[in-house]
Amino acid sequence: MGGFTIWNYADKRVLSPVVVVGSVYFALLALFGILYDYQAMSFVHLGTVWGEHDPSGTWGYDGQFYYQIAVNPFGAAEFMDNAPFRYQRIVYPLTARLLSLGRSEFVPYALLLLNWLSIVISVGLLSDFLHSRRLNPWFSLGYGLYFGQATALTFDTTEPFTYMLVILGIWLWDKRHLNWAALLLGVASVSRETAVLFPLGYVVYFLVQKEWKNAVKFTSVGVVPLIGWLVALRIIFGETGITFTPPFERFPFYGILFHFRKPRMFWLLVILMFIPTVGAWALACIELWRGKRHPLLLAWLANIVMITFMARTSYMEFFYRTKMSQ
Predict the structure, then answer these.
(1) C-beta atoms surrounding 31 within 10 Å
(2) How far apart are alpha carbons 66 and 68 in whole angstroms?
(3) What are the sequence ranges of the domains in the chain?
(4) Against a cut of 0.85, is the pTM above it?
């Protein structure tokens, strides 16, 4: 493999999954245009409750807040449900603003393009990562075609862009570019606060390995930026927005069990969330039992714990998005 490249273009085993995923999501966007007459602005899901201050209007969805920041970074707060919480995820909308050259009419296109490119690049990076370990690059389709990617793309939310930064950080770490890896993970944490679990995984790993220099590096560059940004939000808005998110459940998987009386929703959650999470727990425990120690394993465990105790309202969002997109 060698070299500082995103993926080996000469190797079809790496490139093919990228072409498949890129084509699938391009077709998905086109399908929305044909079936529902969607324009680029339609994917913003701009509601009138916040956008026009009409209490009896439409609510829209989260993409509208990133659109508002991209259009007017310093004046978007008045069009939000909770400004400090929305501004926590500042990198995605600001990148879209740069991509749109500051032209508000181009912002909806920039948001879509940015997420589409993020998914495609992520699959390329994962394919290269797998190929470098003599594993089948087609396994990257598990990430690329995950249903959450489709909903995030069609609702202009931060997940594809954030986790492209995470994957790029991991890829750079694997290539031993530690400074760039720490930086990308730090930027990802300011794009979506839950991404901080990944640099924290590296910090814990380096501490256990007594690699003090790397532990300090990943703390200062990968974790501190989020802390600093939260402090800045507190100074600007008087709060950080952290408490705006729904609290975790007290019991494992209660967020899923809560919806037992809604059979369609419950069984979809069992198939899409419960079974994969239990499988992830089993695989993680096997790795720990084998004595494996890796920063990604620690980050993976942290994410599994978060999903296991996820709030019931977080699961409802998937069905809310599905209903809105029809």
Answers:
(1) 11
(2) 5
(3) 12-245, 247-326
(4) yes
Taking the C-alpha atoms of residue 260 and residue 48, their distance in angstroms, rounded to an integer, is: 33
Q: Are 251 and 278 in contact (CB under 8 A)?
A: no
Tens of pLDDT, residues 281-307: 999 999 999 988 888 888 889 999 999
Q: Could you tell me the sign of the dihedral formed by the alpha carbons of 141, 269, 49, 80, in that order? A: negative
